[in-house]
């Protein structure tokens, strides 16, 4: 719940901006147990928490990971990477969890695009890249997932090359993200006067993005 960015295409912006109006608080143990039950019922091998920035409640996140440590599922931590790029120590704290994979969701392909779609200062784009460096240095499995709906081909190519120069695995595992045009997402983008160069309607999402 909540986020340290305010992306102009956020699909959970109502919950992000009005956290007191949605849901309930749960202990780390309750979260881990619920995830396990869902995964077992559906036959899933992977679980994740989404809809906000989980590193904001870092101790709670660690509690979930500790509870989940001995289960035969992979936990995917989806994060914008800002805190993990700011603090090498936080990235190091994730290293004991061998069933953890971190998906760093990078907003845009360069600092200008980052500013356009988040409104945050351009220099914070670098923290997302540094998060990947810190995680790899800590021995934590990670890959980049890049929001490309507002990007040009050249900036995308340059980012791929940059990530590859850090570690070839980051270019090889480069995941493309695009805006899905749900009505409440369209409403938010219209408010901000921004529109994607490439996006998908809810009934036309390619299988590889599901």
Fold and architecture overview:
The chain has helices at 13-17, 28-42, 58-68, 82-86, 88-93, 111-118, 125-137, 153-166, 168-172, 183-192; strands at residues 46-49, 74-79, 100-107, 141-147, 175-177, 179-180, 199-200. A five-stranded parallel sheet has the order 1-2-3-4-5. Strands 6-7 form a two-stranded parallel sheet. The mean pLDDT is 94. The protein is of the alpha/beta class and 210 residues long. The chain has ten helices and seven strands.
Strand order of the largest sheet: 1-2-3-4-5
Low-confidence stretches: none
User: Structural class per helix/strand content?
Assistant: alpha/beta
The major pleated sheet works out as: 5 strands, parallel
Ends: how far apart? 22 Å
The H-and-E topology, N to C, reads as HHEHEHHEHHEHHEEHE
CA-atom Rg in angstroms: 17 Å
Number of helices, counting only DSSP H or I runs of 4 residues or more: 10
Dominant shape: globular
Beta strand %: 15-25%
Write down how many β-strands occur, each being a DSSP E stretch of 2 or more residues. Answer: 7
Write the layout of secondary structure elements.
Layout: H1 13-17, H2 28-42, E1 46-49, H3 58-68, E2 74-79, H4 82-86, H5 88-93, E3 100-107, H6 111-118, H7 125-137, E4 141-147, H8 153-166, H9 168-172, E5 175-177, E6 179-180, H10 183-192, E7 199-200
Parallel strand pairs: 1-2, 2-3, 3-4, 4-5, 6-7
């Amino acid at each position: 719940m909540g986020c340290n960015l305010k992306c102009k295409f956020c699909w959970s912006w109502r919950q992000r901006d009005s956290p007191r109006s949605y849901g309930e608080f749960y202990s780390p143990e309750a979260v881990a147990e619920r995830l396990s039950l869902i995964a077992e019922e559906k036959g899933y091998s992977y679980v994740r928490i989404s809809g906000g920035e989980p590193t904001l409640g870092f101790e709670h996140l660690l509690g979930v990971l500790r509870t989940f440590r001995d289960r035969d599922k992979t936990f995917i931590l989806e994060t914008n990477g800002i805190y993990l790029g700011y603090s090498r120590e936080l990235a190091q704290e994730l290293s004991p969890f061998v069933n953890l994979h971190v998906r760093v969701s990078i907003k845009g392909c360069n600092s200008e695009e980052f500013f356009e779609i988040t409104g945050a200062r351009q220099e914070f784009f670098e923290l997302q890249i540094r998060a990947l460096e810190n995680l790899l240095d800590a021995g934590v499995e990670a890959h980049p997932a890049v929001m490309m709906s507002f990007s040009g081909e050249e900036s995308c190519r340059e980012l791929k090359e940059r990530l590859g120069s850090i570690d070839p695995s980051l270019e090889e595992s480069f995941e493309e993200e695009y805006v899905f045009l749900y009505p409440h997402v369209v409403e938010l983008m219209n408010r901000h006067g921004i529109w994607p160069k490439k996006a998908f309607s809810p009934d036309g999402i390619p299988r590889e993005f599901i």
